[in-house]
Amino acid sequence: MAKSARLSGFPERLPAERVIERSIIDVLEHTFALHGYSALNHRAVEPISQLAKDGEIDKEIFAVSRLHSEGTERNPLGLHFDLTVPLARFIADNANELSFPFKAARIQPVWRGERPQQGRYREFIQADIDVVAEAELPGHFEVEIPLAVADAFSRLAPLGVPGVKIVVNDRRLLEGFARGIGLTNIQAVLRCLDKYDKIGPAEVGKLLAAEAEADEEQQRLCLALAAIESDSPDFADDVRALGVEHPLLDEGLDSLTTMLRAAHERAPGVVVAQLKIARGLDYYTGAVYETQLIGHEELGSVASGGRYDSLVTVGKKSYPGVGMSIGVSRLMAFILDADSGIKATRGTPSAVVVAVTDEDKRGEADAVATALRARDIACEVSPSAAKFGKQIRYAERRGIPFVWFTEGESGHEIKDIRSGEQAPANPQTWEPVAADRKPLVYRD
Amino acid sequence: MAKSARLSGFPERLPAERVIERSIIDVLEHTFALHGYSALNHRAVEPISQLAKDGEIDKEIFAVSRLHSEGTERNPLGLHFDLTVPLARFIADNANELSFPFKAARIQPVWRGERPQQGRYREFIQADIDVVAEAELPGHFEVEIPLAVADAFSRLAPLGVPGVKIVVNDRRLLEGFARGIGLTNIQAVLRCLDKYDKIGPAEVGKLLAAEAEADEEQQRLCLALAAIESDSPDFADDVRALGVEHPLLDEGLDSLTTMLRAAHERAPGVVVAQLKIARGLDYYTGAVYETQLIGHEELGSVASGGRYDSLVTVGKKSYPGVGMSIGVSRLMAFILDADSGIKATRGTPSAVVVAVTDEDKRGEADAVATALRARDIACEVSPSAAKFGKQIRYAERRGIPFVWFTEGESGHEIKDIRSGEQAPANPQTWEPVAADRKPLVYRD
């Protein structure tokens, strides 16, 4: 017998909340399709050997094993912690069946064994788009990905989701800069910079000394770089003014400048170069992205990603890619906060309750429901024969706007329970207005 | 770095296959909404204490644990193996927030550690609808559930899915009959009957003797009952003719007769009483359902379920329910078999490739794509500047019907690559026909 068993970090939505979550997912799916991304759905598990890397992430893996298996499994499995690693493996599995560049969209749960906290869960939904090419990935895809995400957020605006600022950087720029000033432990430099917003520049300086052996001048230069932020391609001048030289720095600067120029034209103000952005995950090799909800920066990034050149290799072929992941569950944390004002008109799909006044006449009510459904109008038949008042309260409790009576004064009648208006109606022709047809999401 | 890692029993779909799977899911979601079922999405995990019952099912559970947790977890978790147990727990968690009778729909993966075989997976998608009431569940919901499922299958017919026969029985009828002839190990009787189709009546007779201590006359009566099959409510006469009496038998017979009468009226021929149906799961207490694809009975049941009166209890309140689960992955096994003839027109959402003939003019192509997307036409911009022929082959390989040229003889032109026809086009007004707008599923 089932008992109540809430689990911290595993959010579940009530019906009206799920209407909102699903509306967000629908907008994202639709936007991804408009941009030509093929929808995929990855299996939940991967061999742990695919998931556990040298990076920090292996702490967070949920292992999966058959409860009654005897001894150790030959091929131990874990739940995927993102949608990039499964895509890379999917491409390795199916390279011969796919056409490249391959554009993939996935919206599904991922799992991490982290300590749950506000906006961070153990099971959460991500919405990812990626472009993966064979051998060469043209730089314009590094522009396309954040602009597709920006388009998705602009299509979420009618639901009440605030605008976004997508902040970008380039791993090559950071690595080239670090090497150019004589630092060699690049992973340590990236890890330190990644903490800039959390601990501030002074602490990052100390950390650079401790972890990357940076002297005072090297710290000063790193912090000067990290402070650069601009939505104009001219940010490159500020970098050049620091007087550091390295071929990788040039490569990263060129790429980021091109991105900003294109973004400036196609979505002015949305994409901003922010040179302190490093991203924790170790597989990025070019552009990196984070996304802030304007006015709600404290939420952290709601869409992140980057370019990865060496995640997929099949035989001698490499498949470089670039992608971003929208944190649907983190967005939901913001939306479900009462302050957001975002609500659903109702949690049930039904627009109509067909009343049953006598259990022997349930068949008549069923026939009305069948006729309405044939014309795409969601409805339900009253669960029990009852007086009019009880039928109306049943609808009211669920936010269903209409009650249908098969035996009104003039035969079939429909009542709008909000206005109290009741009028004759024909199950073959009656139509609700669009706003009543389906549950809608709106901002109060 | 990702390596190829196919896992037996964890199917993943290629893009065109996913178009088909998603079309099926869309039809089911839409049908469930039309019938007033609120969409929910359960977390993937439950405490193992909720999942592991006395029944056989506990062998099949996948346990989940943090890879780097120290010692044993206080609250060990497992992946859910169906969508009924999570719903029961969800209701126990949220009874005060829900209105009853509560109608829930869920379409999501479940996991079982079974040995994979044709149509049976370790991760598979189920589509469930359930009605759960407070204290009393009116019998008409036992009719509503299979009729909603029948409606779903009739809406899948245009995609090429064959018609179905929903076979029904009632646990009370079986239990009452068994008790009426003096058998007391009811679980054993149900288990034996459940093997009727696999091993045949003679072997079921032997099994009844061995496991339920049935003598020859008891075996004869059980097998006579199991042989009864009819789409008419008159099947009850055949049961009565066996001369067995028990109050529970009467209750089950009444309920099943009512169901067949209503089904006979609303969906003639679809619902058939088949008294050998028992279902393996131990939580059913009333109606039980299985569903056969007509002409493909060897696939086994593609939609099963039943009534459960004691799955949810909160304090002193009980919440009886009834539901069915459509096996989406099992349906997909049938559909992806070449013999089904079911195909998708393409695996990419794009209806148009906007050609780029010169990398410097990519901005013009981007502008066309933006204009088309603003009018809900999915498209992509060519990944690299190339000659016309190469752009057309790019579209061809993906099944994309149209290529847009920004510099045709008369300016903007669109080419239907199937007919070769090319005509002037305006990005603000050009429309594809409906059949080309999105990937479609059809039967060859």
Structure at a glance:
Chains A, B: It catalyses: tRNA(His) + L-histidine + ATP = L-histidyl-tRNA(His) + AMP + diphosphate + H(+). Two copies of one chain form a homodimer. Chain A contains 14 helices and 21 strands.
Would you mind describing this structure in some detail?
The structure is a homodimer of 444-residue chains. By secondary structure, chain A is of the alpha+beta class. Chain A has three domains: 9-158 and 313-344, BirA Bifunctional Protein, domain 2, CATH 3.30.930; 164-293, Bira Bifunctional Protein, Domain 2 (BirA Bifunctional Protein, domain 2, 2-Layer Sandwich), CATH 3.30.930; 352-443, Rossmann fold (3-Layer(aba) Sandwich), CATH 3.40.50.800. Helix content of chain A is 36%, strand content 22%. Chain A has 14 helices and 21 strands. In chain A, the strands form five sheets. In chain A, strands 1-5-6-14-11-10-7-9-8 form a nine-stranded mixed beta sheet. In chain A, strands 17-16-18-19-20 form a five-stranded mixed beta sheet, with helices on both faces. The longest helix of chain A has 20 residues, at 15-34. The radius of gyration of chain A is 27 Å and the shape is elongated. Chain A starts with 14 loop residues before the first helix and ends with a strand.
